[in-house]
Amino acid sequence: MTTLFNNIRIVLCQTSHPGNIGSTARAMKTMGLDRLYLVRPKHFPDPEATSLAVNAAGVLETAVVTQTLEQALADCQFVIGVSGKERSLSQQVMTVREAAQVVKTTAVQSQVALVFGTEMSGLSNAEADLCHVLATIPANPEYTSLNLAQAVQIMSYEVRMALTTGELHYQEKAAELATQDELERFYEHMREVLEHIGYINPRAPKKLFERLRRLYGRTRLEKEEVNLLRGILTLSVNPKKHDKY
């Protein structure tokens, strides 16, 4: 899996704002990518880039700066240009999700580049000509403009989802659900309190209490949640009582 990520590079063309470079580094690192190429950046290295990279400064330290896009792509076998502009070119255009699936199969044995244009105008036609396919983010057609680092984040996320199982990076703590006996004691406690405050008539409860049971039954209450609710019920009728049930 590490090899796949190592075979993928992000290429930024003529970036104007150093903050976008730092934000891109952060976006990459969160998705497991660390190979950054910069084609004629206006300001790099720069303190603003380092600041916005936060803990991804290592991506900036190993970034490769080139004078031409051709140099940044020289050893690549497959190049995807990420662009939101409609073009008259005959290149294949796919969504970033579709492109990520292509990356998954291609990066096994080949070097893959994901190329992004300038903040103001995106990829030029000349830069797009060097790409084998174009990928686009299916945004709101009335406003498709995305910040450069945001576009990198979305593309990097789609690549990560394609390359991995998409599992959480941490183990969620398993909750201990309340037993049926604990639930029944809670329901009885709730009935007593609701009768005490006059919310339900003990002689004619109708369907109200059944609805309350169904409502709580759908939530799959945890043991701690039942204790919390019973504590609220206790204090509702006896504010001075703090005993736990």
Automatic annotation (TrEMBL):
<keyword id="KW-0808">Transferase</keyword>
<comment type="subunit">
    <text>Homodimer.</text>
</comment>
<comment type="function">
    <text>Catalyzes the formation of 2'O-methylated cytidine (Cm32) or 2'O-methylated uridine (Um32) at position 32 in tRNA.</text>
</comment>
<dbReference type="GO" id="GO:0032259">
    <property type="term" value="P:methylation"/>
</dbReference>
<dbReference type="InterPro" id="IPR029028">
    <property type="entry name" value="Alpha/beta_knot_MTases"/>
</dbReference>
<comment type="similarity">
    <text>Belongs to the class IV-like SAM-binding methyltransferase superfamily. RNA methyltransferase TrmH family.</text>
</comment>
<keyword id="KW-0489">Methyltransferase</keyword>
<feature type="domain" description="tRNA/rRNA methyltransferase SpoU type">
    <location>
        <begin position="8"/>
        <end position="157"/>
    </location>
</feature>
<protein>
    <recommendedName>
        <fullName>tRNA (cytidine/uridine-2'-O-)-methyltransferase TrmJ</fullName>
        <ecNumber>2.1.1.200</ecNumber>
    </recommendedName>
</protein>
<keyword id="KW-0949">S-adenosyl-L-methionine</keyword>
<dbReference type="InterPro" id="IPR029026">
    <property type="entry name" value="tRNA_m1G_MTases_N"/>
</dbReference>
<keyword id="KW-0819">tRNA processing</keyword>
<dbReference type="Pfam" id="PF00588">
    <property type="entry name" value="SpoU_methylase"/>
</dbReference>
<keyword id="KW-0963">Cytoplasm</keyword>
<dbReference type="GO" id="GO:0008168">
    <property type="term" value="F:methyltransferase activity"/>
</dbReference>
<dbReference type="InterPro" id="IPR001537">
    <property type="entry name" value="SpoU_MeTrfase"/>
</dbReference>
<dbReference type="InterPro" id="IPR004384">
    <property type="entry name" value="RNA_MeTrfase_TrmJ/LasT"/>
</dbReference>
